[in-house]
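In this supplementary section we document a worked example of the pipeline. Step one takes a protein sequence of length 427 as its only input; no multiple sequence alignment statistics are reported here. Step two produces a three-dimensional model, which step three serialises into structure tokens for compact storage. The input and output of this example are shown verbatim.
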Amino acid sequence: VLDMNGAHGGLKRNSTQGSFKRNESFDSMVKARKQDILSCMEDGTEGAIVLVGTLDDIDKPIVAFVRLAEAIVMPNTIEVSLPVRFIFILLTPSDNMNMDHHEIGRSFCTLMSNPAFHNVAYRVEEKQELLHAINEFLDDSVVLPPGDWDRKHILPINEIMEMRQRRKARKGQNDGDGGGDGGGPGDDGGDDKDKGPPKRNPMQRTSVPFGGLIDDIKNRYPQFLSDFKDGLNSQCLAATIFIYFAALSGAIAFGGIMGTKTENDIGISETLIMTCICGVIFALFSGCPLIIIGTTGPVLLYDEALFEFCRNTLPKQFLYWRVWVGIWTFIISLVVAGFQGSTLVRFFTKFTKDIFAGLVSLLFIYEALRKLFKIFQAHPLMGSVDYCNHYSSLAPCIKSLDDWNSTGTSTEDPPPLCGDNPEHQGP
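The serialised model returned by step three reads:
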């Protein structure tokens, strides 16, 4: 850690490895950077400190804006040595999802960097004056609406500056008419947003069973119809085609492997039909889009293990077992949703996901190695002597097959295989 005031001047690197014998060059670079920043500032420039954070013990945000009578130097608070005149402190409730303290802090830093606002901050006496200065800053701001926009459609900077000057001129002319009404529209817009109930933290349980599911339905289904209307445009067509083929290829691939593992009890046809039905039902009820609908690697491994168990213990009972597994999975999911077990996700870490992914990877690696072992068992590698002897026994078979192909007729029966013809038996 390098102290920006230059308290640590002896950082060294091993002389046998390289470029830093002492850090004079690094210190000079830091000092040059500070000088570059200070050279862009006017004499008498003062700084502001913005401190933000969250607390579990508060229900409402706590804000403090302090203006010191005299600016003082506070070491290790600002990158360059500037006297501090303003201190802004913000504490928000940790369980309030509507407040992002980092974004509020960045917004206030932007406000303090605006000359008009910090000039008001020097002489403000009441809270209303500060709010009025914020509204004036927002009126002079250039806002880009969300969505697709092209840089060619944005006004040049000189036209924006001219519009700003004309707006200031009009404000100067109408200063006596409605100077105190500047914050009206902004306040109304904020009231409209706050009329609804605050959003519930999804990581906290409710007092009723299925409370989380009920809240999700209340928040989701007012926009249910718009989900279909918003999707009827050309931009969604490419995504729809991509998702279709992605789901189709996965169902065919895993369906083919599943058919091989389960002796066609569950094959490509069953996988395609169930993926289609489950996907449509899941989409109609507006399920979480992050959930994968269809057969995946873990499901394939589980079905393979279940099929092996049924084949060794209860032959021809695999499909019945699979149906009951699905029924009990549904019952367990219903109980978890009723007790809002999804709130326990906040205690999970990335380690849980990594362990599960590692288990699946090891199982697939084991399956690949086991298949290679079976192939080598069925077709072992032979030495040169054994291979030559085996080839000499196959030579008459190959010659008779070539003679049969050269006749050009398909009515004759093909020659017998080498193992079926006693004349072609090897030693």
